[in-house]
Amino acid sequence: QKEVEQDPGPLSVPEGAIVSLNCTYSNSAFQYFMWYRQYSRKGPELLMYTYSSGNKEDGRFTAQVDKSSKYISLFIRDSQPSDSATYLCAIADGSGGSNYKLTFGKGTLLTVNP
Amino acid sequence: GAVVSQHPSRVICKSGTSVKIECRSLDFQATTMFWYRQFPKKSLMLMATSNEGSKATYEQGVEKDKFLINHASLTLSTLTVTSAHPEDSSFYICSASNTGAGNTIYFGEGSWLTVV
Question: Which of B20, B59, B98, B106 reaches 20 to 30 Å from B5, CA-CA?
Fold first, then answer.
């Protein structure tokens, strides 16, 4: 089993839809959870960062972490065509202080159709 | 917000030559930077961890003599692809850990390398 599993999609939704993106992980030592958005031919952009179970909201984005199920989600409300991108979940165990490594999901390609 | 800058954004070089890519943290100090490689429609593959003032730590399968990493200051890490070959053509991305913001990791814009 891979450490981080993410459905690569592609996922296509109409404008205004609620989008749900998910990842599962296997290592219970993971404690930092991030979502990145990557536009084509660009570097990943940090969207959300959390380290505890529960929900964290930022504008139209909500990150949800369920450590007991080893399951993380990103919800996008009122999706816009400009949200079309690849979304990557990234997880770290936090060991080694600033030297911790991110383990990435494969990324989900999202297209929001006008 | 935090900004990580990479230069050049695109580079074309001839087979057998070397090319250097710079990664700078513009508004924070980064004792640790990471170098990734990404193939089209694939996720990021960690190549190495760059630590300021010490040798880089390479991931299994990554040739340290081919991909030279230097982290000379708290804001700059460089990746040099030596004796480049066409199979080295890829998207190279760096990231930097902002210890002043809970070790949040920010990425550069990436550098497209084409070896002809």
Answer: B59
Round to whole Å and give the CA distance between A90 and A84.
Answer: 19
Radius of gyration for the alpha carbons in chain A, expressed in angstroms and rounded: 14
* Residue B101: strand, helix, or coil: helix
Max Cα distance, chain B (Å) = 41
Residues A42-51: tens digit of each pLDDT:
899 999 988 8
Give yes or no for a contact between B106 and B3, defined as CB atoms under 8 angstroms apart: yes
Count of CB pairs separated by less than 8 Å, A with B: 58
pLDDT tens-digit readout, B31-73: 889 999 998 878 889 999 998 888 899 999 999 999 999 998 9
| Omega before B40 within 30 of 0, i.e. cis | no
CB-CB under 8 Å, A106 with B31? no
Chain A positions contacting chain B at CB under 8 Å are: 32, 34, 36, 41-46, 49, 51, 88, 90, 94, 97-102, 104-107, 109
Nearest CB partner across the interface for B43, out of A32, A46, A104 = A104
B95: CB partners within 8 A, 6+ apart? A102, B4, B33, B34, B36, B105, B106, B107, B108
